[in-house]
Amino acid sequence: MLKPVKTPCLIMFLIYNLKIDKRLFMFGFFNRFLSHDLAIDLGTANTLIYAKDKGVILNEPSIISVQENEHHQESTIAIGTEAKKMLGRTPASIRVVRPMKDGVIADFELTGKMLKHFIRKATEGRPSRVVICVPYGATQVERKTIAESAKAAGASDVFLIEEPMAAALGAGLPVNEAAGCMIVDIGGGTTEIGILAMNEVVYANSIRTAGNAFDEAITLYARREFGVIIGDVTAENIKQTIGTAYPVENVESMIITGRSISRGTPRTFSINSNEVFEALKDPLNRIIQAIITSLELTPPELASDIISRGLVLAGGGALLSNMDRLLSEATGLPVIIAENPLCCVARGTGYALDLIGTQHPILSQIP
């Protein structure tokens, strides 16, 4: 009877007989154990990192600030939360940049620096495998750019999952069943709409109207109605504090300070909830129209499933007051807000870590 070979003996056997460099072998062997598989929601507004058995371990703004010297060379000043604090408060020599736009990479170099920083901050080990979500309909060039950015940050293998599927998994929808379910993920740069059944995206649509478009609409409203220029941070604060997707009886208001267009001096004005609703009408209507179009193109049998199960809302946009009421009235469907909607995509991408190596159809690998 053969005796089992102990692991240390097997390692020495391989090194001796296969003439493997001992230092390289031991480095790779231990690095494998020290590495972490990560799931990343690389969003336009925020980047979330999910680690297996730990959940979401990082949630920071997708922002980086860089400074240019006299030789036109740029150096990184701050990334994430610290960089966001600088928005609208920097001298001409410092740029505060969102390197992601509409869910895809707008600046490859800065995205790589930002991602590398977030991965190092989230975990001390070098990640061996990474799953990243991408907007539905992203081109092959955009997908490859995202994968290359992750590899530049230290990943050895990169897998992609489409955002509607990730959001559905994170929301706990039964995507493996032979029955339809619907997810609407309103993020920072895009709204992802998905009809799913049997582990497949039956129909999906991605529109570049979401949280950032809400902020821009509030900024334009303040300029048009009050003659005041406000910054992105102020617009976001208005949206989060008194924003509503439906007219309300109990009106709330805020005192806001901006810069007068006519005089160029600071000016204070008051804005209320229903005025914010008026500001948001156009982007809200674009989202409603995209959802209605998706329902019109859904196969009848799946449509009947969705009528009984309802529509599930995820993403930061789900937190806009009365968003569920607006969409329910516009579509005639029950609308359910997912638990912790901000983390749905990251959570669903994290669940996909277990599918690496299984040839599961919801994951695609970029060589």
From TrEMBL:
Cellular component, GO, one term: cytoplasm
Classification via InterPro entries: ATPase_NBD, MreB, MreB_MamK-like
Localisation per UniProt entry: Cytoplasm
UniProt key word Nucleotide-binding: yes
GO biological process, one term: cell morphogenesis
Keywords noted in UniProt: ATP-binding, Cell shape, Cytoplasm, Nucleotide-binding
Positions bound to ATP: 44-46, 188-190, 236-239, 316-319
Gene Ontology molecular functions: ATP binding
Pfam families to which the protein is assigned, alphabetical: MreB_Mbl
Family as reported in the entry's similarity comment: Belongs to the FtsA/MreB family.
Function according to Swiss-Prot or TrEMBL: Forms membrane-associated dynamic filaments that are essential for cell shape determination. Acts by regulating cell wall synthesis and cell elongation, and thus cell shape. A feedback loop between cell geometry and MreB localization may maintain elongated cell shape by targeting cell wall growth to regions of negative cell wall curvature.
Subunit structure and binding partners: Forms polymers.
HAMAP family in the cross-refs: MreB (MF_02207)
Protein name: Cell shape-determining protein MreB
Origin organism lineage: Bacteria, Pseudomonadati, Pseudomonadota, Betaproteobacteria, Neisseriales
